[in-house]
Amino acid sequence: MIHLAPDESTYGMPISEEFQEVLASDPEGSDWFHQLTPGKQRSLLHVINKIKSSQLKIQRSFVILEHLKRQQGKLDYQILNQDIKAFNEKMSL
User: How far apart are the C-alpha atoms of 5 and 46, rounded to whole Å?
Assistant: First the structure.
């Protein structure tokens, strides 16, 4: 038997505790995130949720919010991927 129920979560998927904390610590980044469409919010949550390490989730969250602030709320996945790559390279030095 299958039981369907409406999704009543805020974003349509779980939000990690790490991302919640980063949003709480960065009001400007949080504002830009919450101005995105629900689909873009879910996409970013997926980018964060697929990471297992709590520390990496925090780092990725900061990179995403910094990207949104620099781009003034415009989500550009190509630039975001470059930002993530640059951050990872900087951390590996």
Answer: 22
